[in-house]
Structures
1.
Amino acid sequence: MSKRGNVSMLMHRSSPNWAGMARRWLHTGLLTLSLCAFEAAADDLAAAGTSHGLRAELESFMRQQGIEAQSTGEQSMSADAMVRLMIDWYRFAQIKSAADSDDLVFRYGGWSEGCATAFKFSLLRRVAARDAATPERLAGITLMFEPSAQAELRPFTAVSSDSQSIEAFAAMIAGTPAFRILASATPMAVLVESGAVR
């Protein structure tokens, strides 16, 4: 065999196995992508079981409906629009995580914290499981109104746990003194809330 042939064989034996290396890189990349996807799915599942996850579902529903919760100003969400939005979310959007109870909590009343005061008008979705280790989840919308004009209104709370009677619950809300006064009023602020709503 010629020297050129020996040199050729030596180069062939010592050259990297590019095909094998490419397969290893591909497998490594796929494994990394799989792990990232698994971690993202785990994060989504964990978020769905929290009040923040429930609020994210509400915000997603609002985007689907083309609704923005303006915090202040003449274009702020009215009490009537807020109640209709929350009723539709409860009626048409199932929550992503398992739950044993799924309620709507309507409440209003005076509120103060330090020097800040307001009249709060809220409709919240409350989700709970029988497992005591799983915390109760709350998410919804609160409208903050100037308090002095509503000073005569006594605090009020009502809960609906039956989606079949949601129309009756909506009618009850519409008949409350606070709703009749505030249905078309402009709130000082609109809050999309979650967790331990005060």
Note: Confidence is low (pLDDT under 50) at residues 1-16, 25-48.
2.
Amino acid sequence: MKLRGIFLVVFIYFAAGKCYAESSRRIVWETTTISEKQQNLSFKEAVYLPSFENLPVYLEKIPLIIDDCNPKVSLINTHFEIITDSLISSESKKSLSKKIEIHSRVIYERKNAFLLVSFVPLKF
């Protein structure tokens, strides 16, 4: 199985209303050596959650201008690179698919609306 990681991500397009302007983000991958035979795949500010099989998760909380909008999130202008299979455990590989699943929802903190976006920037 060939794993692919997003190298450059330009995303977050809100089709409904003026909730937030189009925005871009960049994910720069790095590997850290855990032992002589094991390396870890990561990126700056990656989050590791058990619900995502301990794969690196992109997670961001974005302030919304309008409370009652229905923002749409999508990945655009993506660039993928092939990564070494040994960087991800076989258990984690089972949770990956050919399409990246984007999880998004509106949350409220102190009466302020935010869009919570998360996804694993890997596919095979």
Note: Helices lie at 90-94.
3.
Amino acid sequence: MKKLSVAGSALVAITACSCSVTLVTFTLGGDASIDTMEGQPDFSGDASIDTMGGGQPDGRPSDAAMATPYKGTIAQTLLAAFGGTPYCNYTITLKQLEIDLEILSSGQVTTGRVQDLNVEGTDATCPDGPIPPTIANYTLTSATPASGGTMLAFQGAPGNAPTVSLSALLTPSGTAYTVILSFHRIDQSPPLDWSVIVTLPLAPQ
């Protein structure tokens, strides 16, 4: 420890650096002493930043925390006919159809999935029966801004049968959303392909 004497007015000052701490003390009409304490400051404790519930360091919630789940369901769609000469006449109905989307407050869609039960039908005179009922799953692959809304593209699961493409148009509707789903069978050429278009309201969950 080093000490120096200096005449001056009453004043106390403390300075610090990474390598030493200097204490300067002045007294009225007297001397001042300067104590220099050699050594390193103690930073042995742990440091942490409270992000307030998993958001940003300044307390703002992250994008994931701001996403709101939306859901739309319908028991079944209307019958859609396909086939015909030289084939049988068939119908397709999508049952237990549901869509789930995660949407940010900005309107950006972050995740999405669609599921339905494909149910084909035909008349009793057809020698070639329909495909047995199968569950189809689709996962969101892209969300692109479009006029008045957002275009959504979905990828069907590898096990889906038949193979069907799915796209959708999402539009805001007050505090909720409306989605138009467009299904199209792509593993058969006309007249054995089919299309189903259905509009669903989405409600926040």
Note: The helical segments are 63-66.
